[in-house]
Design goal:
- This protein has about 190 residues and is an alpha+beta fold.
- The protein folds into two domains: about 80 residues, no CATH class; about 100 residues, Alpha-Beta Plaits.
- The protein is about 35% helix and about 25% strand.
- Helix 4 packs across helix 6.
- The radius of gyration is 21 Å and the shape is elongated.
Length: about 190
């Protein structure tokens, strides 16, 4: 069995033919839902023991694909957002995004630092983070303390472009977080 961690909420498991037969995932006949769930529970328990990845207590999306060598690839994704942010947030300070979360894209580090200097004067947001997009050389500030519609934050439009809230999932999953906690204060101290 090969286990590949895709991100903090998804894994890919590659099983050989013998392992598929052990877990009864791929066989010549159809499998009942009960047998499939029991097989999946056994697999998740073994993954937890081997890799310390616990996906046992959540809502899961499971996709099973047969491979050429009679094995299978299984993609397992935890779809429970609250658990996701609670587990990662306990270690990093990341909080669940809400409607008062502000997300801003900066084209340069200088613009980000200058904006954080101005923000630091009247906001203390320990849950703010900064992400870096190395492909486009852009920086993203995510803060639960910046309500996007408040007039006092309008000056941010001089430095950055406001991003819509659903984009937060892409940012957190695909971009590199360079400051997990208290980013506004940390970045303002660098300016």
């Amino acid at each position: 069995m090969e286990i590949i961690k895709i991100n903090y909420k998804a894994i890919k498991v590659i099983l050989k033919k013998e392992e598929c037969e052990k877990y009864e995932f791929i066989s010549g006949e159809s499998i009942s839902d009960r047998v499939m769930l029991m097989s999946l529970d056994s697999l998740l328990l073994e993954i937890k023991e081997r890799e310390s990845i616990d996906l046992m207590n959540g809502k899961l999306l499971v996709q099973i694909y047969p491979t050429k060598n009679s094995g299978c690839e299984i993609y397992i994704c935890d779809t429970e957002e609250d658990k996701l942010y609670r587990d990662k947030g306990a270690q990093t300070g990341i909080k669940k995004a809400t409607s008062c979360t502000g997300i801003y894209r900066f084209d340069s580090i200088n613009k980000l630092l200058n904006a954080c200097c101005r923000l630091a004067d009247f906001i203390d947001d320990e849950a703010s983070q900064v992400y870096y997009d190395s492909c486009n050389e852009r920086y993203y500030l995510v803060s639960t303390g910046i309500a996007p519609r408040e007039l006092r934050f309008a000056f941010l439009n001089e430095y950055a472009k406001q991003i819509k809230l659903p984009y937060i999932h892409h940012i957190r999953e695909h971009l590199r977080c360079i400051c997990y906690k208290n980013a506004i204060k940390t970045m303002s101290s660098l300016a």
